């Protein structure tokens, strides 16, 4: 597994030859509250509804399709969202977007992955947030991006998959933003293409 910083990327074709389905997993926890009451009562700060989204773009930066909690599958069927997790409870990935790489239409050059706090909590209330690329056939984690940069932002453009040399590259983006859905992030998203 490779841990990536903002702007870094890896070739998925080299990391996992023959890769057919990559799972983009988003995981997070509610940050622990400090002080006496936080330690006496488990330290949790309630639940936080983060939403992962995937946006499909062509080479000119035109938006082709969106996959999010209101549309769990791309129109062509190549991208499938696991559904909305409204709490962040439990271990592992809280939301997963599976991409069947060989089925992504040729017109799609970039898949952009975002996360938004639908209920408006900022990232200072979130801990252990990660985005990771996993080979679904083997369960092997190929790359991970730490998203736990605290701040008053309510959203992040997490990472992107980019067609390159007949394969796909996974690139960490890590740009903070504001808004309840990906629609609020469109200027940041298009700048990161």
Q: Could you characterize the architecture of this molecule?
A:
The chain has helices spanning 12-15, 35-40, 186-191, and strands spanning 2-4, 9-11, 21-30, 50-57, 63-67, 79-81, 95-100, 110-117, 126-135, 141-146, 155-164, 167-177. The protein is mainly beta and 193 residues long. A 6-stranded mixed β-sheet has the order 1-10-9-3-7-6, with no helix packed on it.
3D shape: globular
Number of strands: 12
What structural class do you assign from the helix and strand content? mainly beta
Helix content: under 10%
Low-confidence stretches: 35-44
Number of helices: 3
- Order of adjacent strands in the largest pleated sheet: 1-10-9-3-7-6
Radius of gyration: 16 Å
- Average residue pLDDT: 87
How far is it from the N-terminal to the C-terminal residue, by CA?
Answer: 25 Å
Sketch the major β-sheet: 6 strands, mixed
Beta-strand proportion: 35-45%
Question: SSE order, as H and E?
Answer: EEHEHEEEEEEEEEH
Question: Helices, strands, pairings?
Answer:
Elements: E1 2-4, E2 9-11, H1 12-15, E3 21-30, H2 35-40, E4 50-57, E5 63-67, E6 79-81, E7 95-100, E8 110-117, E9 126-135, E10 141-146, E11 155-164, E12 167-177, H3 186-191
Parallel strand pairs: 1-10
Antiparallel strand pairs: 2-12, 3-7, 3-9, 4-5, 4-8, 6-7, 8-11, 9-10, 11-12
């Amino acid at each position: 597994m490779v841990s990536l910083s903002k702007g870094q990327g890896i070739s998925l074709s080299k990391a996992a030859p023959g890769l057919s389905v990559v799972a983009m997993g988003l995981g997070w926890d509610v940050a622990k509250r400090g002080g006496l009451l936080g330690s006496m009562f488990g330290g949790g700060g309630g639940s936080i509804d983060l939403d992962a989204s995937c946006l499909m773009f062509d080479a000119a930066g035109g938006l082709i399709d969106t996959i999010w909690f209101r549309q769990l599958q791309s129109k062509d069927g190549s991208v499938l969202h696991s559904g909305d997790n409204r709490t962040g409870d439990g271990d592992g990935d809280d939301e997963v977007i599976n991409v069947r790489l060989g089925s992504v239409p040729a017109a799609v050059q970039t898949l952009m992955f975002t996360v938004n706090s639908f209920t408006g909590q900022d990232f200072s209330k979130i801990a252990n947030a990660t985005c990771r690329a996993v080979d679904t056939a083997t369960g092997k984690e190929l790359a991970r991006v730490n998203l736990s940069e605290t701040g008053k932002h309510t959203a992040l453009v997490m990472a992107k998959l980019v067609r390159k040399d007949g394969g796909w590259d996974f690139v960490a983006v890590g740009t903070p933003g504001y808004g309840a859905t990906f629609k609020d992030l469109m200027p940041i998203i298009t700048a990161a293409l």
